[in-house]
Amino acid sequence: MKQTLILDTNVIIRYLVNDVPNKADDCEKLFNDARAGKVRLFVSDICVAELVWTLKSYFHLDNEDIYGKTVAIINTPGFYFSDEALLLDAITRLKEKNVDFADAYNASLAARNGMKISSYDRDYRKFSDVTAVEPPDFE
User: Fold this and answer.
1) In the structure, what pLDDT confidence band is assigned to residue 88 with cuts at 50, 70 and 90?
2) pLDDT tens by residue, 114-137
3) pLDDT tens digits for 45-57?
4) How many alpha carbons lie under 13 Å from residue 69 in its C-beta half-sphere?
5) Are strands 117-118 and 4-6 parallel, antiparallel or unpaired?
6) What angle do helix axes 45-57 and 84-97 make, rounded to 10 degrees?
7) Which positions ≥6 away from 130 have C-beta within 8 Å?
8) 3-class secondary-structure state, position 87
9) Which helix (H) or strand (E) is 44 found in, with range?
10) Where does 1-82 sit in CATH, by number?
11) Where are the domains of the chain?
């Protein structure tokens, strides 16, 4: 059985932004090994959230660029996620509705599971398939 590594956000960032070229090259080698089936790379949902946050807040990318880079990572052969469909839905919501990734992720979960969201955040109103209620309400 081939080895599975949990991939940290900084490895993905180094590759995507190439701000440290020698590290970006090393990351590319690892990613190529994953594409070739030599190693499996697991990316947690928390890592994806940190990736989106870092690209937006530190590197000042817009949601369209973040969407493109994140979808490319999710679709990379040899990369594994706990729930690709959920992450793809969340990143699409981020791009289309201009909301934070955490809100997009929660909206994806709520829509998929027929659940409401308890929040004061008005961004949830942007989603026609999500109902948000303010505390103390739950109905």
Assistant:
1) very high
2) 999 999 999 999 999 999 999 999
3) 999 999 999 999 9
4) 23
5) unpaired
6) 20
7) 107, 110, 111, 116, 117, 124
8) helix
9) none
10) 3.40.50.1010
11) 1-82, 85-139
Q: For residues 89-104, b (16+ Cβ closer than 10 Å) or e, as one string? A: bbbebbbebebebebb
Would you say residue 1 has pLDDT above 80?
no
Taking the CA of residue 33 as centre, how many other CA atoms within 13 Å lie in the half-sphere pointing to its CB? 14
Do you know the residue count of the chain?
139
Q: Is the pLDDT of residue 139 over 90?
A: no
State the number of CA atoms in the 13 A half-sphere of 110 facing the CB: 21
- Average pLDDT, whole number, for the chain? 97
For the record, the structure tokens of 48 come out as 């994806």
* Tokens 């817009």 belong to residue: 62
